[in-house]
């Protein structure tokens, strides 16, 4: 029998691997601690000691101290640095001192709240204190809801539940709101974009209700590393917040390895599939009994890699010890996997970014990423899963062929020297704001002199009065409509009216399996579209647009579908302009008309186009913000259209990295003759009615974006354009150089 | 005498030209105040807010549906001679202790839904008094609840679904003004919706109050505004100020409250006086109600009578329930013949009866062969629940083992 290799053996081998194109070593860091404050409640101290917590890491100590001083805080901590103690310690101490105190914990998902409840309840049980902590979500049985409302010291919930169940029924929660001391916002960095903009408004409503009941709670937030935690926390909570970032948790040596699969097709610059390389690398670790986590970007990819790896290592270690982990697994199943990882019973796990969030799975030795996770912040979060407090750990990022992956691995400085992205929200988006002012007025009449966040909202209130939704009387705007506004407002989707997805695979068991916002549904749920849900393929049999229902049936096909959109853009107003001799960059309001035209069927293995069909849906119109790049060329050469398309595609890759948004949040369109000027133009617009601040961010940091785009094109190893950068060039046309020159004009 | 003095002297004789002195300006500039006034409305002002109240009295001899208010008074008195527990028992109460109560709101639930009308009725010695408290526009709730609480000294509310709707709504709205008005007093609560479900569900598809009125109280609503239109009518009033529609909603509310009196009378009679019972099924339901409220004496009495019903199903259900009561008292001699009757009838509850018999034979009378026969019989029947089947098989297995010892 062969001797098992150790981690250091494999590290040595990896160093010699020619596909490793960058090796970055992070030195070990010693723990920095402070003694436990002397006045901590004796029961709490003993409970912590029983969990081997005798000292506090510096960041935990600073968090506790600042909260004791009455400050709002945001604690920025890497994965597994004991961040929960940053809030559990001050909260438990407060309740131990005064048992009428209450705390509200907000987690972005139901599952995280469940996790935290069990951890917190273990400490409480060890304290032997009568502190009641409950989760309150859609799964809470009606029988105990009343108990939660009246007697829960710590209520753990999510923003959706706060928005649609707790705030609109605040009179049932009097004892919570009267005594609310702390509001904990965990995983703050997840509140960005549309969701974050909604949540900021939900928190404004929460603060209004608290002040009605005479409480003014402090905020305790925790966040993964992002560029602007303090700014985001202040925007979300509407209060000054102190940043705590003196992380004192220890860290062992970490090797961060960029791995680029070999080129298999020189002219097209196509590389071997990242998935294949990941399978091979993961197998090497796993068969040597080294605990490994593998990240993949989609649920389907998780399932594919999982089955491959289970097959590969079956003979070596048996299939049971390699598990998948993603949204859509039952909570109980996930708890078992988490525990297995902590105890070491499970050797490997293949996961989506679901394991990026603060689920406790202990510390693994190796992390393998299938492709660049999409943002610097997210990459560090995933990397944080590997690395014990002592001993070595390896993180391998295997690049795929996409432009962005290639850009990242070939520009290691970009990644290692760059600050992580900023998380942006725009709570003042008028559509979102109006929605929440309705909810706020429903909850409590609006005083005429009252502001909502930093805004004077008199105009909104007057508008709603004219719409007969509010009634003005005695200096207050009163809700005067029979509807329940929160019911029609979803915090997580772009448009309010969602399409419900109905699975009719079994006639006797027709069920709803999900929903999707209207704009996305146009391209993903049209008739005959292949829709993937938890790794299962469904075909849309009928999209009933009038009733917002998509009827799907399970299928097993070899292709996926991709819809084409015809996009019309009208500039309504130019807010700001940066002009150059031959070009201009503008920012302003636009109307976008979107009409899906056809869809293509694309074979999964080869990406060939194997068929197409028409999409017949009505045109959608959204009013949003855009930034557009305009060239002062009246009579463009023929090749310009091609160049603009290439640049648009590069920008669409680059912008999501710089603005920390999803690729689908921002759209890029190039036009050889823009409707309003007749000039060659590239538009980038927020794919959300009213805009969420992405285009504005691009305008502000345009130079940075431009340089990154040029860099991507310049460093792409292809000779004359490839799908990874500006697309294929024509014969004799230096498409790469011309694209970069064109970018330089802006 | 100067002209001025003369005028003073003759003041009383000079015809005045100021009708406004006789008919004062509508208070607070309320639009259509004359319409309100002619409908008997009064104004209540409080801390810069106001609400409108209206009182209507009915002679005690007047009928509303099957009964007069005098009948209601009598029936409430009859609870005095009732012994034991019943959820609707008014024993020890005066008729005027009961507050018949119903509200109208602008929405279903949640803090944005406002109560715009609180209606109460009370039976006094010689008359029934209906009092209604109306919110003229949002932002006058302090006045509304100040007035309501000032005049309300209820000890027991009588409502239709008030436990889960009306009263939680009142509590919620009261929270908004709790600093300025008295606290809500504690009280008893008779919810006639739950009572109606028990007694009438077997004959009615929906036990909505209007349907119960029609089926059981001899009432038919003419020109009634349907309750679900109330919010729209109210918002229209807030907008235009014309009380015409609101007065109709008030009429609707008044009818609801008066019907509560009739319904309470009717249900009390069904419980207290078996001659009031129209059919055997309802009689059984009354017994089941006693059973559920833990009044075993009254339950047994009712079941005893129901066992004589000519409706086979009613009689067997009653027999089974009576047998269970006996079993609970360890009166197996009395229980077994009843269980036997049910089992032999091979009806809906035969299998349960066989199981009960098997239990008694096995554990109490130690008659293993007989217990085995009952169990085998049960197993031969069509068993729908897997759990029941498994339990029976275990029993069979155990009995066989006992027998073979």
Structure description:
By secondary structure, chain A is α/β, with parallel strands linked by helices. Chain A has 5 domains: 7-26 and 251-417, Rossmann fold, CATH 3.40.50.300; 33-244, P-loop containing nucleotide triphosphate hydrolases (Rossmann fold); 430-487; 493-557, no CATH class; 563-744, no CATH class. Chain A is built from 23 helices and 32 strands. In chain A, α2 crosses α5 (110-127) and α9 (193-212) packs parallel to α17. The radius of gyration of chain A is 27 Å and the shape is globular. The N and C termini of chain A lie far apart (64 Å). The model of chain A has no long low-confidence stretch (mean pLDDT 86). Chain B has 2 domains: 28-274, Ribonuclease H-like superfamily/Ribonuclease H (Nucleotidyltransferase, domain 5, 2-Layer Sandwich); 287-404, Tetratricopeptide repeat domain (Serine Threonine Protein Phosphatase 5, Tetratricopeptide repeat), CATH 1.25.40. Chain B has helices spanning 3-10, 19-22, 33-38, 69-78, 141-151, 162-177, 192-200, 209-217, 230-240, 244-272, 280-292, 296-306, 312-328, 332-344, 350-364, 368-380, 386-404, and strands at 41-46, 49-59, 63-64, 67-68, 98-105, 115-123, 127-134, 156-159, 188-191. Chain B has a 7-stranded mixed β-sheet with strand order 1-2-7-6-5-8-9, sandwiched between helices. Chain B has a two-stranded antiparallel sheet with strand order 3-4. Chain B is elongated and about 130 Å long. Chains A and B meet through α17 and β21 of A and α6 and α9 of B.
Task: Give the key terms.
A: 746 residues; alpha/beta; Rossmann fold; 23 helices; globular; B: alpha+beta; Nucleotidyltransferase, domain 5; 13% strand; YprB_RNase_H-like_dom (chain B)
């Amino acid at each position: 029998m062969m001797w098992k290799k150790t981690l250091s053996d494999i590290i040595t081998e990896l160093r010699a691997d020619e596909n490793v194109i960058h090796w970055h070593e992070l030195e070990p860091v010693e723990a920095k601690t402070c003694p436990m404050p002397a006045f901590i409640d004796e029961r709490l101290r003993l409970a912590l000691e029983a969990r081997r917590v005798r000292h506090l890491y510096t960041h935990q100590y600073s968090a506790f101290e600042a909260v004791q001083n009455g400050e709002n805080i945001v604690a920025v901590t890497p994965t597994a640095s004991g961040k929960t103690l940053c809030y559990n310690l001050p909260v438990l101490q407060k309740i131990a001192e005064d048992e009428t105190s209450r705390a509200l914990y907000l987690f972005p998902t139901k599952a995280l709240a469940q996790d935290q409840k069990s951890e917190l309840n273990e400490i409480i049980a060890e304290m032997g204190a009568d502190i009641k902590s409950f989760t309150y979500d859609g799964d809470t049985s009606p029988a105990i809801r009343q108990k939660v409302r009246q007697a829960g010291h710590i209520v753990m919930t999510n923003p959706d539940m706060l928005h649609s169940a707790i705030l609109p029924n605040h009179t049932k929660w009097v004892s919570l709101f009267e005594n609310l001391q702390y509001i904990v916002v965990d995983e703050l960095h997840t509140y960005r974009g549309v969701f974050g903009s909604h949540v900021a408004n939900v928190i404004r409503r929460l603060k209004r209700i608290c002040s009605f009941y005479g409480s003014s709670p402090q905020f305790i937030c925790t966040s993964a590393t992002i560029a602007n935690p303090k700014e985001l926390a202040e925007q979300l909570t509407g209060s000054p917040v102190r940043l705590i970032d003196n992380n004192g948790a220890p860290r062992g040596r970490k090797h961060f390895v960029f791995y680029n699969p070999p080129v298999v097709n020189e002219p097209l610059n196509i590389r071997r599939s990242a998935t294949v390389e990941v399978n091979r690398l993961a197998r090497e670790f796993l068969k040597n009994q080294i605990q490994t986590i593998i990240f993949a970007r989609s649920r389907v990819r998780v399932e594919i890699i999982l089955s491959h790896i289970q097959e590969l290592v079956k003979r070596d270690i048996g299939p049971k010890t390699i598990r998948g982990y993603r949204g859509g697994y039952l909570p109980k199943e996930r708890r078992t996997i988490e525990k297995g990882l902590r105890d070491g019973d499970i050797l490997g796990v293949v996961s989506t970014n679901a394991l990026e969030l603060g689920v406790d799975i202990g510390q693994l030795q190796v992390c393998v990423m299938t492709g660049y996770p999409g943002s610097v912040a997210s990459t560090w979060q995933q990397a944080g899963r590997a690395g014990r407090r002592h001993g070595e750990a390896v993180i391998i990022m295997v690049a795929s062929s996409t432009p962005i992956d290639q850009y990242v691995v070939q520009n290691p400085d970009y990644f290692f020297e760059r600050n992580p992205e900023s998380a942006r929200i725009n709570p003042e988006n008028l559509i979102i704001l109006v929605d929440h002012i309705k909810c706020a007025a429903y909850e409590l009449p609006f005083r005429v002199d009252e502001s909502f966040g930093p805004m004077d909202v008199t105009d909104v209130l007057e508008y709603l009065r004219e719409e007969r939704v509010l009634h003005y009387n005695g200096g207050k705007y009163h809700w005067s409509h029979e509807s329940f506004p929160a019911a029609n407002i979803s915090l997580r989707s772009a448009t309010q009216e969602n399409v419900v997805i109905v699975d009719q695979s079994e006639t006797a068991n027709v069920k709803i399996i999900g929903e999707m916002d209207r704009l996305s549904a146009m391209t993903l749920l049209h008739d005959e579209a292949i829709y993937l849900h938890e790794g299962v393929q469904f075909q849309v049999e009928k999209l009933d647009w009038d009733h917002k229902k998509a009827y799907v049936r399970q299928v097993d096909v070899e292709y996926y579908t991709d819809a084409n959109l015809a996009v019309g853009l009208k500039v309504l107003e130019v807010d700001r302009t940066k002009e150059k001799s031959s070009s201009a960059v503008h920012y302003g309001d636009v109307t976008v008309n979107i009409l899906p035209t056809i869809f293509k069927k694309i074979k999964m293995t080869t990406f060939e186009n194997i068929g197409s069909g028409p999409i017949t849906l009505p045109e959608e119109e959204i009013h949003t913000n855009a930034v557009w790049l305009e060239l002062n060329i009246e009579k463009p050469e023929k090749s310009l259209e091609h160049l603009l398309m290439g640049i648009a595609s590069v920008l669409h890759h680059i912008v999501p990295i710089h603005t920390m948004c999803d690729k689908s949040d921002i759209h890029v369109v190039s036009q050889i003759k823009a409707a309003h000027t007749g000039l060659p133009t590239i538009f980038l617009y927020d794919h959300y009615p009213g805009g969420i601040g992405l285009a504005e961010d691009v305008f502000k940091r345009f130079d940075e974006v431009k340089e990154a785009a040029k860099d991507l094109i310049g460093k792409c190893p292809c000779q004359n354009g490839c799908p990874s950068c500006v697309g294929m060039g024509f014969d004799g046309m230096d498409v790469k150089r011309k694209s970069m020159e064109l970018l330089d004009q802006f | 005498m100067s002209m001025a003095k003369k005028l003073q002297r003759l003041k009383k004789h000079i015809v005045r030209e100021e009708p406004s002195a006789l008919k004062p300006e509508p208070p607070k500039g309320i639009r259509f105040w004359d319409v309100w006034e002619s409908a008997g409305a009064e104004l209540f002002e409080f801390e810069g807010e106001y609400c409108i109240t209206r009182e209507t009295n009915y002679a005690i001899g007047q009928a509303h549906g099957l009964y007069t208010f005098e009948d209601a008074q009598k029936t409430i008195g009859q609870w005095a001679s009732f012994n034991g527990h019943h959820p609707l028992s008014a024993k020890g109460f005066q008729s005027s202790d009961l507050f018949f109560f119903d509200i109208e709101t602008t929405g279903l639930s949640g803090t944005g839904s406002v109560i715009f009308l609180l209606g109460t009725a009370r039976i006094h010695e010689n008359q029934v008094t209906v009092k209604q408290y109306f919110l003229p526009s949002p932002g006058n709730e302090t006045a509304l609840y100040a007035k309501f609480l000032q005049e309300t000294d209820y000890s027991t509310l009588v409502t239709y679904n008030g436990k889960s709707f009306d009263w939680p709504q009142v509590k919620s709205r009261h929270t908004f003004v709790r600093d300025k008005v008295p606290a809500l007093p504690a009280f008893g609560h008779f919810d006639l919706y739950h009572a109606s479900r028990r007694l009438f569900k077997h004959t009615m598809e929906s036990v909505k109050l209007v349907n119960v009125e029609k089926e059981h109280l001899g009432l038919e609503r003419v020109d009634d505004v349907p309750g679900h239109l109330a919010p729209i009518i109210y918002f229209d009033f807030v907008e235009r100020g014309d009380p015409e529609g609101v007065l109709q909603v008030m009429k609707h509310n008044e009818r609801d409250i008066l019907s509560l009196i009739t319904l309470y009378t009717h249900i009390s009679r069904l419980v207290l006086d078996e001659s009031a019972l129209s059919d055997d099924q309802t009689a059984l339901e009354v017994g089941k109600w006693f059973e559920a409220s833990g009044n075993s004496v009254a339950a047994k009495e009712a079941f005893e009578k129901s066992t004589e019903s000519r409706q086979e199903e009613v009689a067997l259900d009653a027999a089974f329930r009576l047998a269970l009561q006996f079993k609970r008292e360890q009166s197996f001699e009395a229980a077994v013949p009843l269980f036997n009757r049910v089992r032999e009838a091979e009806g809906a509850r035969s299998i349960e009866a066989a199981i009960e018999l098997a239990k008694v034979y096995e554990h109490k009378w130690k008659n293993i062969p007989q217990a085995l026969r009952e169990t085998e019989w049960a197993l031969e029947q069509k068993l729908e629940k897997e759990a029941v089947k498994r339990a029976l098989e275990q029993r069979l297995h155990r009995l066989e083992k006992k027998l073979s010892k």
